[in-house]
Amino acid sequence: MAKKILIIEDEQTLIKALLDSFGGNGYEVETALDGEEGWKKMKANRPDLILLDLILPKMDGFELLNKIKKDDEVKNVPVVILTNLSDVTNRCEELGAKHCFVKSDESIDNIKKAVKDALS
Question: At what angle do helices 12-22 and 108-119 cross, to 10 degrees?
Fold first, then answer.
């Protein structure tokens, strides 16, 4: 059965790259363009993993990650952070993220490895 990934990201170029990398490769991928939409889709569809941007409209990634980790139904879903912020790794890990990547510093291959690791 395909693993479900929810991408919560507002950068269309990155969404396309992630969809190209994960879609159809043993993953069922859904996207959300803001934090509120991401929360609703996550609660409705129970993904196996979340790829989360921090700078989002309506509800930022920090608030969403905090909300996820306090919710008994979804708190164990692994979250991989993808951000343009360079000094937030410790804060993300304290909030319960599995990995935190600065988008400009990482390749899609490293993100794919982190996703595979988080799902195993």
Answer: 60
